[in-house]
Amino acid sequence: MASGTVGALIAASAAVVAFLGAVHLYYTLATDKFSPRDCGLKQRLQAVSPILTSRTTMWKAWVGFNISHSLGALLFGAVYGYLALFRWPVLVGSPFLLATGALVLGAYLVLGKVYWFSAPFRGIALALLLYLAGLVVALAQT
Q: Which of 18, 49, 70, 140 is least surrounded by Cβ atoms within 10 Å, i.e. has the fewest?
């Protein structure tokens, strides 16, 4: 079990990321929120292939990217949430895992600032703050 507040902070961070991933997956599969406002553009994206291959369309690549992006966030949330709650000694005992979590969240934060809009940026900022707070407390206890 996680060491009280420390594990809860990192688990909360993981929950925020998993929530963002779940919302993103729902928006991708069940809504038109990632469709362009210009219907003609969507039709073109459904008809045009990337230079890389003619076996897909830009639209399918776009949808696939969004699904895989969602799955990455869900995986991060599941793995770090599980480690924080049920395998705390493994997480806190692994500088690699601790650094990787911080680096992934930091990269998401940069992506959020440069490429995304304010809601996911704020969510990732919250997740990173929770993670870093848990990391600082965990390191202070060792």
A: 140
Give the separation between CA 78 and CA 100, rounded to whole angstroms: 15
Q: What are the angstrom distances between the C-alpha of 113 and each of 34, 44, 121, 130?
A: 18, 28, 6, 18
Which 3-state string (H, E, C) describes 64-128? HHHHHHHHHHHHHHHHHHHHHHHCHHHHHCCHHHHHHHHHHHHHHHHHHHHHCCHHHHHHHHHHH
For residue 123, which of 30, 25, 21 has the smallest C-alpha distance? 21
Element at 132 (helix H, strand E): helix 118-141
Indicate the average pLDDT of the chain: 95
Within its chain, how far is the Cα of 98 from the centroid?
A: 16
In tens, the pLDDT along 74-116 reads: 999 999 999 999 999 999 999 999 999 999 999 999 999 999 9
pLDDT given at position 139: 86
Residues 6+ apart with CB under 8 A from 55: 49
Distances (CA, A) of 72 to 38, 67, 75: 29, 9, 5
pLDDT over 70 percentage in the chain: 98
What is the amino acid identity at position 38?
D
